[in-house]
Amino acid sequence: MEWPALTDLLLVLSLGAALGFFGGLFGIGGGIIAVPLFILGFGMDQALAQGTALVLMVPNLLIGWWRYNQHHKLPWLAVAAIGITATLTTWLTAKMAVQLDQDVLHWIFNLFILAVGVRMLLLRKNPSENASSSDQPRTAAMPIVGVLGGTSMGLLGMGGGLVATPLLTTVFKHTQTTAQALSLALVAPSSVMALTTYATAHRVDWNLGLPLAFGGLFTVSAGVAVAHYLPEKALRRSFAMVMIVAAFWLIVQSLHTH
Known about the structure:
This protein has helices spanning 6-26, 31-42, 46-71, 76-97, 102-122, 142-156, 160-171, 176-200, 206-217, 220-227, 232-256. The protein is 77% helix and 0% strand. The chain is built from eleven helices and no strands. The chain crosses the membrane at residues 12-40, 47-68, 74-92, 104-122, 142-169, 181-200, 212-231, 238-256. It comes from Limnobacter thiooxidans.
């Protein structure tokens, strides 16, 4: 495959920059937006779209996690508990995914993130109002979140942060930014595992993925910085809207392919 023309390359770099900014802002890798875009806009099949999106996601997630960790010094035991569990689960579920009905999985995931987004949007008070003043992670519970987030990463190649962040805010009562930092500790290593799996299966378009990733490198830190200046309620509602829009987008994509 040839490298894209200059105008196409600039467009791809700009797209990568936009995905990187929103990934840093909401503590996600951008895959939930990139995958349907690749399918509808670039005509990719599902596996190739997910593998290519992971090229963008991995550096964005690693940088985003590093930047969030500068603001939230999380205990390494909690980080290790959620990260290792998620990575192992990603590996196991990715091996199982090829034997499952992908259409059913996509519909379940679409409806799930739609329901979570609506619930977060309708919350009348911040979930973190009941959090402890130190907002320290409950290390013993981190493997549970890791398994759930890793399952999403393994089965769908994305969505680990979209699963983990609402759990950490609504169930474990962490602040939105701390929850996003923990989510990044989950999805950063598991995305590396997922990318390795897709690359081994030759399901990655590196000529598109690498420019996207390069463009995102310049904006993901800006997204993280903006997140820490936004009011928590506004950040939570914005994150909810991203999930709702992504859910409808994926549903339209699913209907479009049938």
